[in-house]
Write a structure and sequence with these properties.
Keywords: ATP-binding, Kinase, Nucleotide-binding, TPR repeat, Transferase. This is Tetratricopeptide repeat protein. By secondary structure, the protein is α+β, with helices and mostly antiparallel strands. The chain has a six-stranded antiparallel β-sheet with strand order 1-2-3-4-6-5. A hairpin with a 2-residue loop joins β15 and β16 (407-416). The chain starts with a strand and ends in a 5-residue tail after the last helix.
Length: 783
């Protein structure tokens, strides 16, 4: 561009560049003066970009004030729009504020000029929306120039408040700089004159103290501080009167701030007589205003006006620079913070976290930690590097979500785990019906910033538009939230929510898959529903899910589970689960089902490898860790099984299912006293009775006491009521006929534990009986 002309302006030098354009120093030979010319970048030079440039010009042209830069001309040259404006020499307030802050008198002097400029803009119906110290210049003469009306807009009277970001920055994206954003803007209200007042309060506080009053190690923490914490204390040298002005500007309730900027001007002017600069203060001011006459750097006002794009969080102070990621091939998406202020919306924040994981997990070249593990860090005080080490990942994604009506706003940021370096961040906003497109866009941007190449199919999946019914989607997320409790009440509530979602949207395949999984959990994990009752319902829901969406990994995994437990169709189940893993290599449910199938069919090496893979994806999942212990147990690798039980109990010392595995191992090793210690469901009294029976009768006394417990409905839990468990007890007693009678009943009732009869160590005493081989054939298990 240098040496070319734009209309009557001859381009002399580049002054700066930004998201959508460049600013040049140019010469207006007609009037013999230098100007700043802002030029739209070629890639942004479409109709929308030119329209934004013209809108900005119209904003600036409405303002004529000594503390606001002057617009000279707007034009277009060779398809590239430009604005010519006042060129000034000076420094931004951000560069001028010393670490400890300015003298209060200087703060008042500058504050009056900033407030006066804002007052003029508001009188013209224009609000700034991005006031900050970087957008305020001070000339060598000490005059303030408020810059960057590129994000400004006209304030319409009686305009409804909306979460929509209908702005110069483009549809669907939040504008502004978070450290200066008012609480109501973070919560989705449209910026207005009162949010400019808040930003002015932040600027004045920063001038007094040398730092913004709300800070945090991440965007999430920063937003939380703005919404819920008081501002940082002002230095003691700040007078009570000036302190009162700043505190009123920083009221979280906009109704409690000043009504107009004119009132702020009057309040600051009233402080001037009290704050004459002493000579030492003037000397201090000269040190931080290092003007050197002709040697001063020419900083174009328009250099700061270059920002046409929405804020790029990665460029914010304290959030890293324009960093690039190395070869990040493993990620954890930490729980998105719920910024709604409503605890009842936690299900939505958790659901959005899981959705983002779901969008990233199918990328086979990227390891994405599953939901169960990342949810362990909800509200954690641990550092990013510490979390990354525990999860074994190279990158962390964190952020926040805020829902207002049918609008959703997500802020996401990418962090390089080892260095805790912030690589990228962005804000997104959409209608709730477009939430899947929003999640796919976030996932697509993340893969771009870790420089991950996507296959054509993966790229297509992340760009495919899919709308949802907002109410049905809300019900689906509530169902997922309750299902994750793995409790009887929670899983039954989940089924209810899924059914309501289907009533709203009969083609909701994911809710059908959720129902299928829920019935399996009630029978196999919770034990409050019989397999005879649960399995037909599970299979019917899986068939419906698969019919509605053959490309849904969850549907194939649900069908695999139904074929496994209901039909004992080993080949069909394996085909379905492998298809689920092809569609989504990171889906934890598919890995879990595949391990069950491998374990039941005696493929122990594959089973152990699959269980380890599931733990890689979900290292803090109790179920995955417990499942690996079962794989070792059924492979008769008891030492490895005990070691894995200990690792599981390190995650949760009270996880009863792991204790069941340990008790089974101790029984196989003949250590019945230790086995009793690891059966917490017995309670102290029954445990003591069992121990006394063992001490008096040895192994036979132990198994006789277990048989008595199984026949006492009042004390027998779900496990002891199962026919498979009775078969274990009879096998321990050497009562083969009774054992096989119990196994026959288990077969007829389709009990889940019977799937493992081919390899279960508890049935080893029956292996040489021909009836065991016959049972394995009836089960359809490979010999």
């Amino acid at each position: 561009m240098i040496g070319t002309t734009l209309g009557p302006f001859r381009v002399v030098a580049l002054l700066g560049s930004g998201g959508m354009g460049q600013v040049y120093r140019a010469r207006d030979d007609r009037l013999g003066r230098d100007v700043a010319v802002k030029v739209l970048a070629p890639e942004a030079g479409d109709a929308a970009g030119l329209d934004r440039l013209l809108r900005e010009a119209r904003m600036a042209s409405a303002l004529n004030h000594p503390n606001i830069c002057t617009l000279y001309e707007v034009g277009e040259e060779a398809g590239r729009g430009y604005i010519a404006m006042e060129l000034a020499e000076g420094k931004s307030l951000r560069d001028l504020v010393p670490p400890g802050g300015m003298a209060p008198a200087e703060v008042v002097r500058l504050g009056v000029q900033i407030a006066d400029a804002l007052s003029h803009a508001h009188e013209q119906g224009v609000i700034h929306r991005d006031l900050k110290t970087a957008n305020v210049m001070v000339t060598p003469a000490g005059r303030v120039k408020v810059l960057d009306f590129g994000l400004a807009r006209r304030e319409l009277r009686n305009e409804p408040v909306s979460l929509s970001a209908d702005t110069l920055a483009g549809p669907g994206l939040v504008v502004g700089t978070p450290q200066y954003m008012a609480p109501e803007v973070l919560l989705g209200s449209r910026a207005d004159a009162r949010s400019d007042l808040w930003a002015l309060g932040i600027v004045l506080h920063e001038l007094c103290s040398g730092a913004v009053p709300f800070q945090g190690p991440s965007v999430v923490a920063l937003c939380d501080a703005i919404l819920h914490q008081p501002p940082a204390p002002l230095p003691k040298r700040v007078s009570p009167a000036l302190r009162a002005v700043i505190e009123r500007l920083l009221e979280k309730d906009p109704e409690r701030r000043y009504r107009t900027v004119g009132e702020v001007c009057a309040a600051l002017e009233a402080l001037r007589p009290q704050m004459t600069l002493a000579p030492t203060q003037a000397t201090r001011r000269r040190r931080w205003l290092p003007w050197t006459g002709a040697g001063a750097a020419a900083i174009a006002i328009a250099w700061l006006l270059v920002r046409l794009a929405p804020f790029d969080l990665a460029r914010l102070p304290g959030l890293g620079g324009a960093a690039q990621a190395g070869a990040i091939r493993s990620l954890a998406v930490l729980p998105l913070a719920n910024l709604s202020g409503d605890p009842s919306q936690e299900f939505f924040a958790d659901g959005m976290t899981e959705e983002l994981i779901t969008q990233l997990a199918p990328i086979d070249s990227l390891k994405v930690i599953s939901r169960t593990s990342v949810m362990q860090y909800k509200g954690t005080k641990k550092t990013i590097p510490q979390i990354a080490r525990e999860l074994g990942v190279g990158g962390i994604v964190e952020g926040s979500v805020m829902r207002s009506g049918d609008r959703v706003r997500i802020i996401a940021q990418l962090i390089e785990a080892a260095s805790d370096r912030h690589l990228w961040a962005q804000s997104y906003e959409r209608d709730l019906k477009d939430v899947l497109a929003l999640q796919r866009e976030v996932a697509r941007d993340i893969t771009a910033h870790i420089r991950l190449s996507l296959s054509p199919a993966q790229s297509q999946r992340l760009t495919t538009r899919a709308e949802v019914d907002p109410e049905a989607y809300d019900l689906y997320l509530r169902g997922r939230y309750d299902w994750s409790t793995l409790s009887d009440a929670g899983v039954r509530r989940a089924i209810g929510y899924y059914q309501q979602a289907i009533a709203r949207n009969p083609r909701d395949a994911r809710s059908y898959a959720g129902i299928s999984d829920a019935y399996i959990v009630l029978a196999q994990v919770v034990g409050t529903m019989t397999f005879e009752e649960a399995l037909p319902r599970s299979k019917a829901a899986a068939e419906k899910a698969l019919a509605l969406d053959p490309g849904l990994a969850e549907a194939h995994a649900s069908m695999a589970a139904a074929l496994l437990w209901h039909d004992r169709d080993w080949a069909g189940a394996e085909k379905q689960v492998q298809q689920a893993l092809r569609l989504n290599p990171g889906y934890p449910g598919a890995h879990l089902i595949y391990n069950v199938l491998l374990r039941a069919t005696g493929r122990h090496e594959q089973s152990i490898a699959e269980a380890r893979r599931a733990i890689e994806l979900d290292p803090l999942s109790l179920i995955n860790n417990y499942d690996l212990a079962w794989s070792y147990y059924q492979a008769h690798q008891f030492d490895e099984a005990l070691a894995q039980v200990r690792r599981t109990l390190e995650i949760d010392p009270h996880f009863s299912m792991a204790l069941v595995v340990q008790a089974r191992i101790e029984e196989r090793l003949g250590r019945f006293a230790q086995a009793i210690q690891h059966q917490p469901s017995l309670g102290p009294e029954l445990a003591q009775r069992l121990l006394e029976a063992y001490r008096s009768g040895g192994a036979r006394g132990y198994w006789q006491a277990q048989l008595a417990l199984a026949r006492a409905p009042v004390v027998a839990g779900p496990m002891r009521r199962s026919q498979t468990w009775l078969a274990y007890v009879f096998a321990g007693l050497g009562q083969r006929d009774s054992a096989f009678a119990a196994l026959d009943r288990a077969f007829e009732q389709r009990e889940g534990d019977l799937l493992f009869c081919k390899e279960d160590p508890a049935l080893d005493p029956l292996r040489d009986d021909p009836r065991m081989a016959a049972l394995i054939r009836r089960m359809g298990l490979p010999s």
